[in-house]
Structure formats: C-alpha cells, structure tokens
Amino acid sequence: MKVFWLSLISLSFTVNGQYFSEGWKPGQAVTSESSAPSPTGVPSGTGHSDNSQKSQQLSVDGILNSPWVSSLFAKAGVNISSIASTVGLSSKAAYPWDPRIPLITDTNFDDMIVDEELKPEEERNRTWLIVVSTSATNKGGGISQFVDRIFDETYNETLTAGDLPDLRWGRIDYLNVTYLTTKWGVWQAPTFVILQNRGQTLRFVKPQWLRLHEGALRTFLNTGMYNELPPWDSSFAPGGSNEYILHYMALVLMKFYNVVIKVPGWIMYIASGSLASFIIHLLHRPTKKDEVKGQAALNNTHNAVAAPVADTSVPSTAAASGSTATARQVKHRKSKK
C-alpha cells in the first residue's frame, strides 16, 4: 500500500500543472496571460521554424522567379531560373515539360538508347518517338508549344490505353543539344524523330505533314504508318560512307557551344560586332593596283588645286584697247572733215 502511494506522489511531480491559473486577485498587477505549453515530446520552436523555412523558401522563390531578376540575369547570359531549380532554391521546374517524358541530351543518349538492355525480340520492336522542341525558352514559337501540347496529350492517352508497349517517348531541347541535332542534320524545330535499331534507323517527320489535331498523332502511331516512311539512307546517315563528316562536325560545334554558352551575352554582342567590323573591312580592302590608281588620282587633284590661277584681266585689257582704238578712228575721221 505504501508503494502505491509513493508511486502516485512521484507521478504527481512529473505532471505539468500550468494548464490553469489562479486568476486575478484584488491588488494584484495585471499581467499578460502566458501561452499554453507545447505538447509533450514536441519542441516548442518546431512549428515556428517550419513556417519560417517555408516563408523563406517562398520569398527566395518569388525573388528568383520575378521578371526583373530574370531579365537582369538574362542580359548577362545567365538563366537564373534554371540554375535555382537545379540547386533546389526554387520550386519552379527547370523545364516547362512533362517530367515523366525523359529528356534526351548529348550525354545520356548512348546510355538511354544505344546501350539499352534489351532482349532480341524487344530490340527488333523497340521504337523511340522523340520530339525536337524549342518551347523551353521565350524564343520558342507558338508552333513548338502547340506540338508539345499534342505530344504530351498523346503520351497520356497511350499510357491510359497501354496498347503500345514497345514505344518509348523522349524530348530534345533543340537549343541545348548540339551533337545529336548536327549529326542527324536537324536544323529546324519542331521535328519528330522516329528512332529504331538502337539509333541506326532514323525517320524524320514534320508536324505539318501530319496536320496535327486531336488524335492525329495517336492514329499515326497505332496504325504503324511511320514504318511506311522511307528511312534516312543518304551517305551521311548512320552507317553511311560520309557519316564521319557529320560526326566530327558535330563534335567541333558541341565543344564550341559548351565554351560559348558560358560567356555572358553582352560580351558576345561586343565580340561579334568587332569581328563583323573586321571581316567587313577585310573584304572591302582595296588591292595594290587600286591603291596605286587612287594615289595617282589624289596627286592629280592636289596638283590641280595648287596650280596658279589664270590672269582674268587680259580680256578686260583687250576690251579697253579696243575701245581706245575706236576713239582714235573717230578723231581721225573728224580731222579729215
């Protein structure tokens, strides 16, 4: 029995008794009411810290995604929104596209498509539908945005139906992928690329050829009409005799792009203007014969200007002498009379 009472007393000391106050008494100063204690096991500052982190995240997100900050960094050639999204400072996605559709780049193309682990039957049936788009930036036109919307809608419809198990979807950012677009000879976007045989068989389809509307792209895929299109079979195509030309050309352009993309835009404007002025001056530089002729013409002009001016008083003198002779003749006639 004593053990019971001792345990009950010990438990009473551990109970927090600050839930009720004794109230105000006459003559007692008025004080502010203390806040209720935090629940047991939860630190009192946890909720406040979470709210402060959220508000800080929202404030940073709003600043980085504001138009004036984006335009300021854009003038320096920096995409601050993409960088902030990559490092986790912004909740805004780096690309406006569906994240479920993989983004094909120069670095992951081999791992994702060429070296994909497939069984022999899967390898024969594997088909990639890749859209080359420019709608990720402000430079992308309305056609790219429309094609991307149709592409994403068709992707969702295909996932819901589940009737194209061997088809894979991908997207290429035309402005940031240099090697693949150069090697494939894609100089215009948007463009559909139908890829088979681990990238050795390519077919290119312009969106205007399909007359895209609701359900047109899905019908094109379901019926297998893309297999009826002739593949790219020129000497520059994969496996062709001149494939190496586009390969090395694409490597050079990719290296050049990777260097130029790090240079701020205003420096590029100055450098390009200086280079253009130098090239124009070089193209319009006169030959040695033209320089000799020009120097001779300049000397002749200088001599003509430096020559003494002819005496203009001669005609007036002759006129004066003429008038004097006429007067003498008149006097002579009068003397005869």
Summary, kept brief:
With 337 residues, the protein is of the alpha+beta class. The chain has helices spanning 2-14, 46-64, 67-75, 80-87, 109-114, 120-125, 142-161, 179-183, 207-210, 216-222, 243-260, 265-283, 288-306, 313-336; strands at residues 127-133, 167-173, 191-196, 201-205. Helix 7 (142-161) links the parallel strand 1 and strand 2 (167-173).
Provide an overview of this structure.
- The chain has 337 residues and is α+β, with helices and mostly antiparallel strands.
- It contains 14 helices and four strands.
- Strands 2-1-3-4 form a four-stranded mixed β-sheet.
- It is elongated and about 135 Å long.
- It starts with a helix and ends with a helix.
- Residues 32-48 and 316-324 have low confidence and may be disordered.
- Residues 314-327 have a biased composition (Low complexity).
- Residues 1-17 form the signal peptide.
- This is Thioredoxin-like protein.
Summarize this structure as a short list of keywords or feature phrases.
single chain; alpha+beta; 14 helices; transmembrane; signal; transmembrane helix
Show unreliable segments.
32-48, 316-324
Strand order of the largest sheet: 2-1-3-4
Helix content: 40-55%
> End-to-end span in angstroms?
188 Å
Overall geometry: elongated
What oligomeric assembly is this protein in? single chain
Strand content: 5-15%
What is the residue-averaged pLDDT?
A: 74
Please give the number of β-strands: 4
SS summary, helix count: 14
Order of helices and strands: HHHHHHEHEHEEHHHHHH
* Global structural class: alpha+beta
Main β sheet profile: 4 strands, mixed
Radius of gyration: 44 Å
Keywords: Membrane, Signal, Transmembrane, Transmembrane helix
Biased composition (Polar residues): 29-56
Transmembrane segments: 263-283
Organism: Lentinula detonsa
